[in-house]
Amino acid sequence: MATKFEPGIAYHQEGRYAIATYDDSLTTFENKESVDLADQDPALWERDAKISVEELCEGWGITDEEMDSVMEAIFYPQVEAEPEFSFA
Q1: 14: left (phi over 0), alpha (psi -120 to 50) or beta
Q2: pLDDT digit string (tens) for 37-86?
Q3: CA-closest candidate to residue 9, choices 66, 78, 36, 17
Q4: CB-based contact 56:67 (threshold 8 Å)
Q5: I need a labelling partner for 58 at 20 to 30 A (CA). Which of 10, 32, 65, 77 fits?
Q6: How far is the C-alpha of 22 from the C-alpha of 86, rounded, in Å?
Q7: What angle do CA 69, 73, 76 make, to 5 degrees?
Q8: What global pTM score does this model have?
Q9: Which residues contact 16 (CB under 8 A, 6 or more apart)?
């Protein structure tokens, strides 16, 4: 029994697919919009390392570019760094 999700890995539950984005949450797509499934119990989801990105995107009705855009924002957020202090 898994106690945590593996970020970046696909999981499924009753025909619903999602990608682990954190060790306790998943992201899926509904109506071409990303949906965060926070605080999920990994024991209720089955790991699926065999499904391809193409299959996931087709099932969600999105392009791989749309999925890449969402995953990039999650895994590699572009945060504007602001100095916490100044020398002035």
Answers
A1: left
A2: 998 999 999 999 899 999 999 999 999 999 999 999 988 877 665 666 66
A3: 17
A4: yes
A5: 77
A6: 34
A7: 115
A8: 0.79
A9: 28
- Give the position of tokens 């996931």: 56
In angstroms, rounded to a whole number, what is the distance separating the alpha carbons of residues 54 and 69?
A: 15
What does the block give as tokens for 88? 């002035």
In 16-68, DSSP assigns E strands to 16-22, 25-30, 33-37, 46-47
Look at residues 85, 79, 72 and name the one whose alpha carbon lies nearest to residue 27: 72
- Residue carrying structure tokens 């009705």: 61
Residue-wise pLDDT tens digits, 2-16: 569 999 999 999 999
